[in-house]
Design brief:
This protein folds into three domains: about 170 residues, Regulatory protein AraC (Jelly Rolls); about 45 residues; about 55 residues, Arc Repressor Mutant, subunit A (Orthogonal Bundle), CATH 1.10.10.60. By secondary structure, the protein is an alpha+beta fold. A hairpin with a 2-residue loop joins β5 and β6. The strands form two sheets. It has a six-stranded antiparallel beta sheet. A four-stranded antiparallel beta sheet has the order 3-8-5-6, with no helix packed on it. Helix content is about 45%, strand content about 20%. The chain is elongated, with a radius of gyration of 24 Å.
């Protein structure tokens, strides 16, 4: 990594080891309107405990603890962090973090923003607490190092590649719990079976009470675990399955809109039209015409 354009801008840089760095980025207007973009990236390998307090920052913060330990306070919750922990927070909220006096941490971090960053955070926040512990932090560390390297060296298409890498990081962060979940977990196995049942029966009526009785799991747990596992609610998953099937029939059959509505499980054509328009910003009839071979 080229260190020529990296610096520490803390007033007491002697509090950090030589491996520590901070790179503050200036982002183009094009990147701000299109991409996820990096505002700041760095590594804090502390020689002694250091406390940081902030709020009302228009960015999101992700960090991985490489070694040592400390605490983070966010939304009035205290999180105890140590090697292997990852944190993801919205910096508009009041927050503070401080490493342990006897075992200060080594932390890699990124501040980022972008049009879709808030939605990524909402998706994460709906599933996890703000501090998590994946099986391995190496993939996260590797992505942060790549982001730092291409920005410091000003590689071609830096902003585009940075956006892609931040997306990779967030995708990995949001999905790690599913990937690391014990494949023999009874709950996970049941939720997968429920999804398979929906895939085979989405055109019919599906009720939580029926699923609960059929699969022996509380309906409230079904709702929670399905969203946690697949990142989407059961009701929305069923709706999307029906809409996808309706698009297939609109394109590749001569069935009427009314017939397709009923076949796909809507039973009410006006409701079908409403849901289709809300999803595709076009009516089923116009969708069919747009795919008609001229």
């Amino acid at each position: 990594m080229n260190m020529n354009n990296i610096w520490l801008n803390e007033p007491n840089s002697n509090e950090y080891s030589e491996e520590s760095f901070r790179y503050i980025n200036t982002v183009s207007s094009e990147a701000k309107s299109i991409f996820l973009y990096m505002l700041e990236i760095g590594r804090m390998k502390e020689k002694k405990s250091h406390k940081i307090e902030n709020e009302n920052l228009n960015s999101f913060f992700f960090a991985v603890i490489l070694s040592g330990k400390g605490t983070m306070v966010y939304k009035e919750h205290t999180f105890h962090l140590n090697a292997g922990s990852c944190v993801f927070i919205d910096c508009l909220e009041p927050h503070s973090y401080q490493s342990d006096k006897n075992n200060p941490w080594d932390m890699m971090f990124i501040h980022f923003a972008g049009a879709s960053s808030a939605e990524y955070y909402k998706l994460f926040d709906s599933t996890y607490v703000n501090a998590v512990r994946p099986d391995s932090i190496e993939p996260f560390k590797n992505i942060l190092e790549k982001i730092a390297d291409i920005n410091i060296n000003n590689e071609p298409y830096t902003e585009l590649i940075t956006s892609k890498l931040i997306t990779d990081l967030l995708t990995m962060l949001i999905t790690f719990r599913y990937n690391e979940h014990d494949s023999n977990s009874k709950t996970l196995s049941t939720i997968k079976s429920i999804k398979e049942y929906i895939d085979e029966n989405f055109t019919g009526e599906i009720y939580l009470d029926v699923l609960s009785e059929k699969f022996g799991i509380n309906k409230f747990n079904i709702t929670k675990e399905f969203k946690r596992t697949f990142g989407i609610t059961i009701s929305k998953y069923i709706l999307f399955k029906r809409l996808s099937y309706s698009k297939h029939l609109l394109r590749f059959s001569d069935k009427s809109i009314e017939e397709i509505s009923e076949i796909c499980g809507f039973y009410d054509t006006s409701y079908f039209n409403k849901q289709f328009k809300a999803s595709e910003d076009i009516t089923p009839l116009k969708y069919r015409k747009s795919w008609t071979v001229r």
